[in-house]
Write a structure and sequence with these properties.
By secondary structure, the chain is an alpha+beta fold. It has helices at about 5-10, 95-100, 105-130, 135-145, 160-170, 175-185; strands spanning about 15-20, 25, 35-40, 40-45, 55-60, 80, 85-90, 190, 195. The chain has 6 helices and 9 strands. The strands form 3 sheets. Strands 2-6-4-5 form a 4-stranded antiparallel beta sheet. The structure holds a DNA duplex (13 and 13 nucleotides).
DNA sequence: CCATTAACGCGAG
DNA sequence: CTCGCGTTAATGG
């Protein structure tokens, strides 16, 4: 995990249990806490003018949630919403700043994590700027697989619904369905029990 | 709730 | 003009 739990607790972090689909913060809110996921997944999203959802990140256990806002003086550009029931650690901003100041090694880890998120943004922006849905979906799939332990062919099961894939790639769910079936024909992926295996 | 299909409009190439 | 994506609606899992 990004910051050891004991360290967060030592600086006064609280443990929170969240329901599925619960909002942690909304776009426009002022950041007041550092959040780290102990269990469950959280998405960062944004609703565009026609109400279509764009998912900007899916964060797994061990990761922090939009910590970059604690380093700059801006409001949240995204909403943070749980996928399932989650346990998180919450540390007030001032305590977080103190923790980072007093633990330079943690600061390095945060740099690394921040860099990884930024790298992800580059990759997704490159993928999603393609007009071709197969390119967008392939890029998204390859990237998510790269973070799993399953590197052999067809051993990684994507833990996302078609709608979530659509929200990550800014496509419509029907286009995702059509394109995924095409990619199956091309032997890029397999569909087992309706789930995408790559 | 999630996935799939079909018919059709419409814009980009 | 053609092709493919988004839309809508219906159906199945």
């Amino acid at each position: 995990m990004l910051i050891p739990e004991e360290l967060l607790l030592a600086y006064g972090a609280d443990t929170e249990i969240l329901d599925p689909h619960q909002t942690i913060f909304n776009e426009g809110d002022t950041p007041k806490y550092y959040y780290q996921i102990v269990e469950g997944r959280i998405k960062l999203n944004h609703y565009n003018d026609d109400g279509k959802e764009l998912i900007l990140a899916i964060l797994d256990k061990g990761l922090s949630v939009c910590e970059l806002l604690l380093f700059i003086d801006k409001t949240y550009p995204v909403n943070a919403i749980t996928f399932e029931k989650c346990t998180i650690l919450q540390l007030p901003k001032s305590s977080f700043v103190k923790l980072v100041d007093e633990n330079p090694n943690i600061s390095k880890d945060i740099n690394k994590f921040l860099s990884e998120r930024l790298y992800y943004k580059y990759i997704m922006l490159e993928n999603n700027s393609s007009l071709r849905p197969d390119i967008r979906i392939k890029g998204m799939l390859s990237y998510h697989k790269s973070f799993s332990e399953h590197q052999d062919r067809f051993t990684y099961e994507l833990p996302l619904t078609r709608q979530q894939v659509a929200s990550l790639t800014a496509l419509r769910v029907e286009t995702v369905v059509r394109t995924v079936k095409k990619l199956e024909k091309e032997n890029f992926l397999k569909i087992i029990n309706r789930k995408i295996h790559i």
